[in-house]
Amino acid sequence: MSGRDSSWWRARAARVAALAIAIAAVAAGCGGSGSNGSESEASNAIEKASQEAKKGFENAKEELKKGAKEAEKAVKEGLEQGKDQAKQGAEKGKGEAEKAIERAKEEAQRGIERGKEEANRAIEEAEKRANNSGY
Fold it and tell me: Taking phi first (over 0 means left), then psi (-120 to 50 degrees means alpha), and beta for anything else, what does residue 134 get?
């Protein structure tokens, strides 16, 4: 049973106790000019029901406090988890960006090397043609 369920039952018990007080009060008032024993029993019943109602209200109040503390703790933990996950995501993103930059640099270097090779071949080809044509 969760804390929420138990606080509902405690609050229900407090309402039942309050109802018992009201019934006992009505019963005591309707007794007419009965004996002092009946009035004393009714008075005791009212007092007992009153004490039970107070206990129920106190228990419900304590359950609410516990629930509020647990909710606050859960919110703080959730915020910390979110903060940690965001930090991890940022680190992962940073790492991915660095890898992409490295790949781009490597690809650029390969492009430069291929360009140099093509330029050298073109120069050699031009020199061969120039030599073959008599220039």
Answer: left
Q: Tell me the C-alpha distance between 96 and 108, whole Å.
A: 18
CA distance 19 to 25: 10
Answer for the pair 66, 3: CB distance below 8 angstroms, yes or no. Answer: yes
Domain range enclosing 106: 3-133
pLDDT of residue 41: 79
Count of domains for the chain: 1
Q: What is the pTM of this model?
A: 0.40
The CA angle 72-78-79, to the nearest 5 degrees, is 90
Q: What is the DSSP string of 94-118?
A: HHHHHHHHHHHHHHHHHHHHHHHHH
